[in-house]
């Protein structure tokens, strides 16, 4: 142990580490309880088709309605859930809930569910997805799974065959956060993705920065060449939308159209999906 050196400085680091481990342990206990106690909920964000601006589907994004801390964002608890493996159980809840809720939407639009690399490393993942489809009655062609390239790297030889099998059931597979990793192009070559989601970090500057413009343009032509639709993530302002539109981008998602929100049966069956319970401008006048 580092404490052997006996300096206060090193003891201080040790205590910090202990505190961090204790805090994570507490959080994991709380999350276990939260799963049993139904404290998680799914919010949905619209994915919008261009040029017509119709809603093409929704992405499910998990939140934790914590009894004292309020609504907790996924970045504050997914990493701990991944490190401890609890994401497998939480992920099962997420998939089951997304399928249950979406199968009640009268508009019958697709739902996209984020899948952690840890879930994909579970050898029972495919059979769990099949079982969820069966028990919820969800149409597999309305389900989309979003994976990141970290699902493929590392020692998970069955990620690719697992996704192939899910695809053969009619489930769509999207590459999420494209442009943030170091081997995305190799991933595109090794798996027939149904959609590529271009990361928000590349969209942020697309209206202002010539380099960002060039990169986005290149990705659009890559999508054309591979015949895979590109979805631009995190579109917030009309200037970004204008550029994406001009480059022939076919799908966009972001606060410009609406923040993730609860989507009730009534919302989704109202026959007017663009007003479906999402906060923010569902269809701003500026978009025309
Ligand atoms: P992601 O899958 O890339 O999801 C997009 C994130 O960007 C979401 O954050 C969404 O709310 C946010 N976003 C969308 N449009 C905009 C915009 O215009 N501006 C800004 N500033 N943000 C925007 P969120 O919900 O906090 O989720 C963060 C990440 O947590 C997700 O990134 C995903 O990696 C993970 N996550 C969320 N839900 C789940 C889940 O159910 N399962 C798993 N495994 N991971 C999840
Ligand atoms: Mg996603
Ligand atoms: Mg993303
Ligand atoms: Mg992500």
Automatic annotation (TrEMBL):
Residues 268-288 are annotated as: Disordered. Residues 24-274 form the EAL domain. This is Bifunctional diguanylate cyclase/phosphodiesterase. It comes from Acuticoccus sediminis. The chain holds residues 527 to 814 of 814 of the full protein.
């Amino acid at each position: 142990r580092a404490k052997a050196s006996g300096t206060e400085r090193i003891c201080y680091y040790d205590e910090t580490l202990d505190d961090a481990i204790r805090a994570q342990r507490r959080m994991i206990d709380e999350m276990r309880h939260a799963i049993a106690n139904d404290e998680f909920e799914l919010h949905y964000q619209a994915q919008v088709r261009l040029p017509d601006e119709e809603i093409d589907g929704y992405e499910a994004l998990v939140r934790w309605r914590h009894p004292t801390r309020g609504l907790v964002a996924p970045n504050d608890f997914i990493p701990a859930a991944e490190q401890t493996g609890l994401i497998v159980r939480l992920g099962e809840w997420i998939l089951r809930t997304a399928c249950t809720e979406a199968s009640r939407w009268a508009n019958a639009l697709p739902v996209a569910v984020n899948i952690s690399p840890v879930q994909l490393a579970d050898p029972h993942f495919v059979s769990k997805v099949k079982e969820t489809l069966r028990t919820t009655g969800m149409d597999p062609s309305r389900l989309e799974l979003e994976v990141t390239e970290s699902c493929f790297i590392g020692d998970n030889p069955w990620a690719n065959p697992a996704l192939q099998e899910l695809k053969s059931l009619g489930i769509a597979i999207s590459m999420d956060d494209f442009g943030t990793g170091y081997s995305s192009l190799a991933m595109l070559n090794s798996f027939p993705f149904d959609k590529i989601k271009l990361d928000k970090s590349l969209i942020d500057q697309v209206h202002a920065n010539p380099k960002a413009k060039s990169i986005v343009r290149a990705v659009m032509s890559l999508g054309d060449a591979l015949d895979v639709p590109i979805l631009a993530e995190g579109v917030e302002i009309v200037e970004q939308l204008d550029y994406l539109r001009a480059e022939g981008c076919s799908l966009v998602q972001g606060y410009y159209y609406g923040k993730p929100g609860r989507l009730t049966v009534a919302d989704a069956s109202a026959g007017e999906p663009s007003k479906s319970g999402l906060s923010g401008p569902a269809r701003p006048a500026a978009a025309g």
